[in-house]
Amino acid sequence: MNIKSLLLGSAAALIAVSGARAADAVVVAEPEPAEYVKICDVYGAGYFYIPGTETCLRIGGYVRYDIGVGDAGSLDGVNHVPDHQSAGDTHSTYYKNTRFTLKTWTGQETELGTLKTYTETRFNYGNSSGDYLDQAASNADDWQGRNKSLSLRYAWIQLGGLRVGKDDTAFDTFIGYAGNVIQDTLVPYGGQESNVVQYYFDAGNGFTGLVSLEEGAGKVGTIDSYVPHVVGGLKYKGDWGAVTGVVAYDSNYEEVAGKVRLDVNVSKELTLFIIGGYGTDDNLNDNAGNAIDASGRGFYKQWGGNWAVWGGGTYKFNDKTAFNAQVSYDDWKNLGIAANVAYTVVPGFTVTAEVDYLNAGKFDDADFNNWTKANKKSSVGGILRFQRSF
């Protein structure tokens, strides 16, 4: 009996201790399911849902490397830079620029329509183009390689048809830029950057329109009162191409400019365009100390004289190779010709080789503020561009 009682007591003690230890054990919680990024295909490829929201986000951009030679256009070689060894001697050298551009897009459906944003920020390293001897003292070192501008190129919000923020002027965006050449402004066709308040509307049956209130940019373009610049546009688009017209009122100088564009899809390989521009310039000579408006150019009518024309097109040899060309001419007999071949090495990586010719009036070397249409100069230049887009 004593042995049996002892055995029973020991078993009871072991059970009690085991129960106490079991009660004290740490219970590990089950891991929560991971929340993976979800693809959003409503607005096109590359969008994904921001976790925990109904907003779709896309991140992209490009890395670009430009090599420019010669002296034609805005991306020309850099001329007459000081010799590092011989005092008083000058050389010409390349125009070089490396750019990283970061872009973001967002989209979200609301009870008032689609809510969208777009931003584009540009970082640049290289030298500036243009004749060294023509530069003002403050820009005398522009031929040197260095970190250049950091610019907020675009940043706008759009709800339904209403867009506010920083964009290019609708005088350019609504009608379209002048072709797929790199230097499409050998004969300039209008101002670009501006703060805007815009409304886009779709009238149906291929008709769309726009009204834009704009601030402009720069000494000539920025408004100097509470009266904004005003741009209006109307477009008809069909399978064959499109017809577009825009009219702009420059509130600084009380001038009007307009452009009409015709796009034609000749075939799957060939597309052509032509743009005609006309603008008044009665009040654009009121500031002789400024080289731009002293030559009869405002924020919108930047070509020489009253009228100008741009034409060209694109021919796609295959999925990888395209030929692009543009010819431009204005009332002051300024002539620009640009042509390039763009080759897609692999998807997302394109190499473009372009040749440009310009016959136009130039700034006086002795007086940078003295622009003369009579002093014509012919110039030739070239650009080799490498661009990785993502």
TrEMBL record:
GO terms for biological process: monoatomic ion transport. It is found in: Cell outer membrane. The keyword Signal applies. Coiled coil: none annotated. One of its GO terms (molecular function) is porin activity. Keywords: Cell outer membrane, Ion transport, Membrane, Porin, Signal, Transmembrane, Transmembrane beta strand, Transport. Its main location: membrane. GO terms for cellular component: cell outer membrane; pore complex. It is a multi-pass membrane protein. Residues 1-22 form the signal peptide. The keyword Ion transport applies. Belongs to the alphaproteobacteria porin family. Consists of 16-stranded beta-barrel sheets, with large surface-exposed loops, that form a transmembrane pore at the center of each barrel. The pore is partially ocluded by a peptide loop that folds into the pore lumen. Forms passive diffusion pores that allow small molecular weight hydrophilic materials across the outer membrane. This is Porin. It comes from Mesorhizobium kowhaii.
